[in-house]
Each structure stands twice: as C-alpha cells, then as structure tokens.
Amino acid sequence: MSISLTEQAAQQVARQLSKRGGGLGLRLGVRKSGCSGYSYVLDYADVLSENDTVFEYHGVKVIIDEEHLPYLDGLQVDYAREGINAAFRFHNPRAQATCGCGESFSI
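The structure assignment produced for this chain is given below.
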C-alpha cells in the first residue's frame, strides 16, 4: 500500500499545522458522498489509533485508518495554485469514475 504527497502538498500541510500550532500530521480518509460514491476527507491528526497506518513524505506524516486504505492505495495528493485559487488535488489510480465537479469518485 502506498500514498504519497508531492513536495507542494507537504509544504502546505506543514504551513497549516504550523499556523494551527501543531499536530501529528494530515489525517486522510474517505466517506460515502457525492454523485460518484466517495469523497476525500482531510483533517488534522492529533493522536494515533492502533488501526492507523502512517506514511511520511517531505517531513510530513499522512495518517490513514486501515479501513480506508483500499480506497486510497496509490493515491497522490498534490497542492496547486491556478490564478487566485489554490487547492489540494487528488490523483487516484483506483478511481474508475469521478463526478463532473471533481468532488467525488467511485472504485
């Protein structure tokens, strides 16, 4: 199983954790939502549970509950600026379809 953060995404997570005043890293998961079935969930991680898997890229930890790993295997998280907009971008090789707005995917 592998999940990766680009250097730009890792820098953004580090900035947000610093602005927040700390945390272990980025908690990444999925939930049933949207027109395609699942959407990505990003949050801060302050504690680890025994079901968590930890990946580290560019000095930033990504924490994922093992229940979510089958949906996220191979996922690359990027952070991009386009004009005045900036957002995390998800490149999931397991996604078979995405909705038109890009907010949800199916496996």
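Interim note for the steering committee: The chain has a mean pLDDT of 84. The chain is about 15% helix and 45% strand.
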